């Protein structure tokens, strides 16, 4: 069944939706995005995603084309029109399509931004990967220096997923100056002696909306959290590990560069945090 997608104010069947070849998202990766998960037909952590979107736009000198309220209404409309009970809503805003290709930013008064949203129906809560856990490999982090802005420059993360796949793994953790920054599309955590360790916020990583929620739940549950960088050696010696993102929630990691963590099965802290996150998200979803 063909999806209904949103493009610049219109709801259209996906095969009728069009974006210009001059769109700066296409030519310069000059755009930002958000992915919001859907559980029971409702949006998870929507205010956090809307706030981060505004921040990403501001950091790139792009005006916000829609208010948070308007965005929420579009998200809900798409979820309803596509009968999504579980999955994601993808949102992308680019600097629009000026008359010609030019490195210089177009005047926003003359070139409106391009706004695209679409849904992806997918089982998230009963994910088989959550039962087995993920295998990750390490790769160098050679991305640009503003990873805190959620831009659509995803070529290297995409290459990282391919490197993982070729190595027989599920994902890659990126390493810079000897320390793990984050996963290709998620934040990275290890657990040692009950303490959760994850890199502190900065320009080196995306400020995950799921990360913020999960760390708050962990602290509420009296778990110890250390926000600091860790190495691959430390990860390999950890009791357990996990990742977080909007589309995976909390997902256990069971091996790092071929070394099994603990007993090689999803660990208790990751499993518990996944349960708490899903339970709380269900209650707070809008
Ligand atoms: N880090 C990177 C590089 C990401 O691409 C993502 C999500 O796409 C995350 C972290 C997790 O962010 P969130 O929890 O907001 O989905």
Automatic annotation (TrEMBL):
Pathway: Amino-acid biosynthesis; L-leucine biosynthesis; L-leucine from 3-methyl-2-oxobutanoate: step 4/4; Amino-acid biosynthesis; L-isoleucine biosynthesis; L-isoleucine from 2-oxobutanoate: step 4/4; Amino-acid biosynthesis; L-valine biosynthesis; L-valine from pyruvate: step 4/4. The keyword Amino-acid biosynthesis applies. Its cofactor is pyridoxal 5'-phosphate. InterPro entries: Aminotrans_IV, Aminotrans_IV_CS, Aminotransferase-like, BCAT-like_C, BCAT-like_N, Class-IV_PLP-Dep_Aminotrnsfr. Keywords: Amino-acid biosynthesis, Branched-chain amino acid biosynthesis, Pyridoxal phosphate. It catalyses: L-leucine + 2-oxoglutarate = 4-methyl-2-oxopentanoate + L-glutamate; L-valine + 2-oxoglutarate = 3-methyl-2-oxobutanoate + L-glutamate; L-isoleucine + 2-oxoglutarate = (S)-3-methyl-2-oxopentanoate + L-glutamate. Its EC number is 2.6.1.42. This is Probable branched-chain-amino-acid aminotransferase.
């Amino acid at each position: 069944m063909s999806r209904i997608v949103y493009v610049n104010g219109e709801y259209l069947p996906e095969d009728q939706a069009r974006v210009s070849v001059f769109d700066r998202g296409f030519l310069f990766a000059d755009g930002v995005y958000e992915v919001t998960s859907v559980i029971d037909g409702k949006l998870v952590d929507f205010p956090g995603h809307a706030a981060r979107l505004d921040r990403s736009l501001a950091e790139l000198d792009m005006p916000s084309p829609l208010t948070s309220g308007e965005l929420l209404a579009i998200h809900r409309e798409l979820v309803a029109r596509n009968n999504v009970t579980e999955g994601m809503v993808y949102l992308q805003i680019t600097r629009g399509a000026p008359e010609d290709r030019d490195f210089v930013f177009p005047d926003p008064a003359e070139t409106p931004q391009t706004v695209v949203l679409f849904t992806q129906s997918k089982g998230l809560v009963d994910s088989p990967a959550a039962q087995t856990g993920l295998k990750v490999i390490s790769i160098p982090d050679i991305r640009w220096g503003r990873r805190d802005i959620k831009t659509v420059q995803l070529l290297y993360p995409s290459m990282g997923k391919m490197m993982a796949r070729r190595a027989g793994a599920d994902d890659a953790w990126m390493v810079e100056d000897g320390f793990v920054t984050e996963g290709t599309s998620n934040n990275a955590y290890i657990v040692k002696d009950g303490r959760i360790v994850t890199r502190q916020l900065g320009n080196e990583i995306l400020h995950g909306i799921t990360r913020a929620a999960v760390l708050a739940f962990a602290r509420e549950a009296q778990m110890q959290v250390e926000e600091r960088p860790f190495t691959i050696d430390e990860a390999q010696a950890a009791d357990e590990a996990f990742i977080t993102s909007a589309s995976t929630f909390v997902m256990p990691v069971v091996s790092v560069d071929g070394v099994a963590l603990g007993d090689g099965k999803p660990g208790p802290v990751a499993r518990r945090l996944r349960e708490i996150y899903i339970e709380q998200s269900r209650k707070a979803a809008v």
